[in-house]
Every structure is written in C-alpha cells, then in structure tokens.
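tool_log.txt
---
The assistant was asked to compare two proteins side by side. It first ran the structure predictor on the initial sequence, then on the second. Raw inputs and outputs are pasted verbatim so the downstream comparison step can read them without reformatting.
(1)
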Amino acid sequence: MEKLPTVTASQMRAIDAVCIEKYGLCGRTLMENAGRAIAAEMLVDFPEMRGKGCAILCGRGNNGGDGLVAARCLKASGTRAVAFIAPPEQGPRSELFSLNLERAQNCGVEIFTLEPGVGHLTRILQEAGCVLDAIFGTGAKGAPDGVWAEAILAANASGLKIAAADIPSGLDADTGTAHPACIRAAITYTIALPKHGLVAEHADPYVGELKILDIGFPEQAIIETLKSAQKNAC
C-alpha cells in the first residue's frame, strides 16, 4: 500500500479475524511478532532502561499478552523486566495472556500483582529506566478505574518515558478522547495500521511519537476487509 489507511477499532478487529480465519495466521504468532517488535524498538528508543530495566503494565487481555512477550524479549536481551498484572478479581484472562504469562515466568521475568495503592509499583518506578503500557488495547470501553487508574497516574507521575503498546491506555481508539486516567506516552507503537484516535490532533499529548509496526498482516487481507466495510456502509 502506498499510504496506510487509518482504521477504527472494529475495522482492526475485522482485519485481525480475516488474517486468522482466511489467511491461516495464528493468533499466538501474531502476538509473538507484536511483542518482539515492540521490544526491539524499545531497545533502540529507550537506552535509559539499560542497567535500570523496564516496568511493564499488563492488562488481562491480548494487549497485556503483547506486553508479556515484550517483557520476555527484554529479559532475554539482558534488560531487567518487571511486569505488573491485574488481580484475579478483575475478571478472566485471555488464553494467549495466560500462555505468555507462564512463558514469561519461566524465562525469569519478575511478575507482581497490582494491589490498591500501587505502593510496590511506585517503588519499582523509582528504580526503572522506562515504562511499557500494555494495559488496554483498542477494544477497551469506558474509563480505566481501580488499580489500573492508580497505575496509570503513578506511571505518568514517575517522570519516566513511557512506551504504549498499540494505544495509550485510557485513550479512545476511534475518537482520540482521553479519559481522566490516560497514559501520556513518549512513543506509541501501534500494530499494523494507525487508528483514527491516534492521529487526532487533540490526542498528541498522549500518543507522543507514533510508530507503526509491521507484524506480518497480509496486505490483501487489509484491502479486502476495508473494501467489505465500505460496501456494508453504503
């Protein structure tokens, strides 16, 4: 494609589904590709984490799974990786999140459960070189609350540079509207295509620099899905 189109969250989900169902791509492979790509970019863009490490905030869905893959890859590079995950009462975890949580644990990633007050996270932020936000993806609805709102505010207040996986948590993927607790990223590594909300001018303070990561989505799958969406809209 000469110019990448911007897409809505629902269009991105449709593209993802077509890649898996029609083109035979594996969700596990796509997550591995995404996490690896994010880690590789961070090792270049965030030299301050060498020797200090990275605090990774991982939600319970596939965005959190991307974060766990990135944590494992950072650990393999010799970087300290400390991941914080949601408490069990927040709800069920995605299958791919659970798979990559086990893999990250087996590879020596330090993993802690967030607790109200986020005191342990605050202490780790004082030691870390940067933060990776992998809490909520493009499908998130509503404002972050509870421990995740606390974690977002703590990360923003830490003074550390923050990388966002796919989209800053707390930002609406379609409108670019920021909720009261919204990550202020230095760099957003969005997957495959830019989302409408990421290119909205009023979202700039939260998105920071926008980088688009190619993780292997077939171009034809993107074209077909967007053409189908246009037909259905007519």
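(2)
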Amino acid sequence: MNNIWIFGDSAGIDFNIPNNPVPIFSSMDGRGSCVSISDTSGQLQFYSYTNGNFRTEIRNALGDTMQNAELISGKNFYNTLTIVPFPNSNSKFYVFLHAFSYGLFYCTIDMALDGGLGGVDKKFIGINNDEMADCLTAIKHGNGRDWWLIAKLSNQIPPNRLNKFFVYLITPDSIHAPIVQDFNDARDGDFQKLIFHPSFDKFMQINTAGYMSEFDFDRCTGAITLNRNIFPEQLSNFSRFFWEGAYSPNGDIFYVSTTEFVNQDTAYLIQYNLLDTNIALSADTLDAFVNPIGTGAVRLAPDGKVYFSRAYQCNAFPSCAPYPDSVRNVYNENLSVINQPDSLGAACDYQPFSFYLGGKRSYYGLPNNPNYELGPLVGSACDTITSVGLEPSKTNFSFFLYPNPAFNQATLNIQTLKPNKKATLSIFNNIGALLLQKEITLQTQSIDVEDLPAGIYYIQIQTELGSSTEKLIKF
C-alpha cells in the first residue's frame, strides 16, 4: 500500500516492480507535505498534498479533485499530512492534517463514492486546537488492527522546552483522547521530525536546533520512553540543523540531512553508525551543497534504498514554489539514492541525482506514508485480534487446503460441492480485510498466493449449505 509515491511538481515513483522503480506523472504541485496510498494490488487509490496557497488537495487515482474535497485549509510544511485506514475496513480512510494556523484535523474518505473513485464524506473535523509541529506520523497498534497517531506540540512562546507528544488511539469505533507525555529536553518548534525504526519499537526524533534522540515506543500501550540522547539541543552557537532522516533497512545506520540556517550556508547529508560506542563521532558526510540547492526529505523506500530529494531555490527561497517552467536542472529533475544503505562509508553507494523523474521535478517533500503492511506484535500482550470474526469454522460442509503452509499456490478441495453448483471463494487477511472474492464451480480449485505477503489468511467458502472458513498460512 506504499507502492506508489506522489510528490513535488507532477512527480511520482511506482515501486511495484521489485528492483525496478519507474517514474510516473501526477497532478500534484506542492513543495512539501504529501501522502499517497495504494490498494493491495499496488494500484494508486488517492493522494493528498498541501499547495502554496495553504490549501490541502485530495485527488483520486485519475488526478482529479476528489468529490467534496474542495476548500480544505492546510499548513504548507513538510510532514503535516498522513493517511490512516479505518480499522476493519478496506474502503474507508482518515486523512489527518494540520490547519493553516492552529489545530489537528481529519477528513474521512469513502472509496465507494463517485463510482469507486472515492469521495470525502466528512471534512475538517478537529481533534486538537494547539499549534502542531511538522512531524505528524502514524503506526499500527500491536494488535494489527488499530492505529496510533502521533503528533507534537509547536509552541513558539518561551519557555517552550516541553517536548510534548500527543498519542491518539484509533479503533473501529472512535479516535480516543490523546495520551500526553512531556520530556522537557527539547524545544517545541515547528521543524521537528519523527522517524520510525524498521523494527517499529522505537523512533528517532530530530529538530533544527540540533537535537537527536532515540525513543522506545510501546505499540500495545502507546507509551513513549527516552532510550538515548545522541545530540542535546543547542541553546547557542548553533552549528547543527537536522532536517530529515531515515534508518537503514537493518536499523543500524541513520541518515540525516541538514539545512542551511541562520549562520550556515551549507547543507549536508550525513551517515551515523548507531552501533558505534560514540555515535556523534561516527558521522560520515556523504554530500555537501550550498544555495540555491535546497535540502529535502530522506526516505527509506519499498525497494530497500534511501531516496533524498532536493529543491532548486533560485536564490530566493521559497519564491521558486511553484517553479517557473524554465527552472529545470539536474538538481530538481532527479532524486539522489543510497543504493546500499546497510553499509558504512563509501560502501553505501550514495549516488547524487541518479534517479531521473521523467521530466518532472522534486521540491523538499517526499510522501509521509506509514507502514500499512505492518502486522500484529506477535506474542505480545495485545496480540489478541487474529481474524476479526473469521476463526476457522464449519457448518454442514467442509473443505481442505493443501499444502498449508503454502508458498506460491494452494489447492482447495470442496468434496460436497455438487456438479453445476456455484460457490463463492473469499480471501481475507488477518485483520478481516477482503482481498479477493470470486465465484467457483469446481470441486478442486487452485489458489494463487504468490503475490501475497507472508502471513495468516482466511479462506471462506459460501455455498447453498452455508459458509465454512479455514486458516491458510503463507510463507
């Protein structure tokens, strides 16, 4: 569901073909915040972004403004949007966003509207009236069904060193009141970022005052605990201006971009070895660049590589958003790529401006998409939801699945299905979302599972005798 990225000036990337991402085109034109979501087959469902007029656009898969999506205000920063599926639904979604001035809001999307292209059925519903920082993120609950939404305070009035987190639980029936935690060790400014570790039990927080700390996150309770501080926040003599970051796939390395700020006209892309006894001293500068090349987002992509966007600032930030058509160059028509991000130093194979966007252009932002494929925290106290009412069951008929577990293909045998009679085959994932439904007429039927991620699935057969369900494990 993170297979399609939409960003920048009409740019996008399709990651559906392993090891061969391809540039695609979109209707987006925004310098910062953007999100996109695909269905289980990897096809784009919709995307959202905030443009230079402080308006949040929600567009369908055709690139048209979604039904009833007009006149939604939004803050034009860089990580102020995220999409969260409704728990127990494969057709309804939340779009969470920051308002232009103050507050955290959401719209709801129903993909059944407008002939399947989707529409907004509720919009601009407020859940927090505070000013929010530029680091909205979401992660699936340890039960594999619900979600956590994490927001941060932005308070520009001193004293503002609260480092305040708001953690919202999203369940099938509600968005619950937030869990609020203060750590009192960093300012609550606009430009903070939260980046989840590939294990999803911790995240890195960075900000433009040079703060970098790793926090533990409990997916069962939503509790946040400070694990280690790598760089304390600078209170004077500013020299570190952390902007965006990404973990390596194995989680042992952290990549961070800095920005030109205050007394520093050079921005950097830096690699840190998180296994080093002194992480701060392990810094390896991979790239350095000066205005008019602006720093951008750093993202771990579905292909296991790290992508880095830049903007071309035309020496007058941010007047180049939107770009004049004449402003086209190697800096904004390509992304930089770290091809081997699990390796240190030159072995990481950092290649600046190496992914061509097909004539479209990047700005500062890349999609702020959570991990939609994340499953339950197996064996934890909250791993209590396995099938959402789809436990293996039999009425007055049964069927067999073999091999089980399966790798590429399973065979279904319904001994009681009479000749010329029809049955309905349905496949559900482990949170009850319907993945496939079709009619079958044969007692023995092959089921192709090659493209399904490893996990637990439920095969349900409906006949004139009733329904029966069996569990299928995909390796």
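---
observation on (2): The chain has a mean pLDDT of 89. Residues 272 and 283 are 5 Å apart (CA to CA).
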